[in-house]
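Meet the record:
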Amino acid sequence: MAGFELLSDQGLRLDGRKAGELRRIQCRMGVYGQADGSAYLEQGNTKVLAAVYGPHDMRDSRLRALHDKVVVNCQYSMAVFSTGERKRRPRGDRKSQEMSQHLKQTFEATIKTELYPRSQIDIFVEVLQADGGNYCACVNAATLALIDAGIPLVDYVSACTASLVADTPLVDVSSLEATTGGPELTVAAHPKSGQIVLLEMSHRFHMDHLDKVVEVALDGCRDIHTILDGVVRRHVANTGAQLGWELK
């Protein structure tokens, strides 16, 4: 499929979205009672479950305690049924290890790590269905799970992808667009400050196009932050109502 076919003459993508339109995002907090914090998130057809444990004493002998900050342990995995091809190793393969490292880097820059020295926070994310933007959906779900666990953050962190088709930037790229379109850019950022905590490109962008693709991705991060913030506020209001809080 040629790249230009990903965008119609009317400026619509294959799934009917406009170039700057996010996929539909649905999410819930507190979905897994055994964890300290949890969240389920759907971003288009990509579905992710995130669970957070901690902060707690160091339990993993493979990790070394830090005297001045918490150790952030991230584990990314994909369910064997998450893609059309059955995965032999849902975790521990090179791609999963790379994703786990990206998540660790992202949340070390987001959690107020200095508040919990000699402690450990575990973040587990599982992709139940993959349709593009797996890392982004994991970041967005894990952010909600951390807030559900009551762990202080510097800011929300939200993540979004962007690509370029026929000189037109596309936001929140699906799997089909990623495999048949142009290079893909992934951004994780703190929306209020605009600080980028992770940026990755699948291939090189021409310098003439890079700035506008990054800006489209950051706009996507800000839009996702608005959605996540709304979910958090509704969750707090519902929880408060169940506990008899008087919310003003």
